[in-house]
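Model: You mentioned two targets. I'll fold them one after the other.
Researcher: Yes, keep them separate.
Model: Target one:
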Amino acid sequence: MAQQDGSTAPGEHRGPDDHRTTTVEKGPFCTAHCTCGWRGPARRARSLARADAASHTGS
């Protein structure tokens, strides 16, 4: 994957603000994704995927 100027590679962190999470649905599963490249496990419950994202960001 090509990087644009000022971007960081997956797993490379600049600070706590670099962690922006979203949830992505694929079929019956929901997965938390982060801008740092982290991905949580596939979950059937959206609430569990959101909890994974919150524990990743420390929220």
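Model: Target two:
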Amino acid sequence: MESQIIRPGYLTAHQTARVLSISLGGVRLLVHRGQLHRAGGSPRQPWYAVEDVQALAAKRAGKDVA
């Protein structure tokens, strides 16, 4: 279940998965590999910083991020 209350500037795991076009398992794998870091929430409902997700999306798309 997706959290309904989240601070501005953060994404839920479901939103992160949508932005990156991957599954929730894929998000967990990125965290496990150290390519994405949790920025808040709880262990069961983590949040990810929008900037981190956007940078990772750009990197996966083959674009350079300043």
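Researcher: Noted. Anything on target two?
Model: The mean pLDDT is 90.
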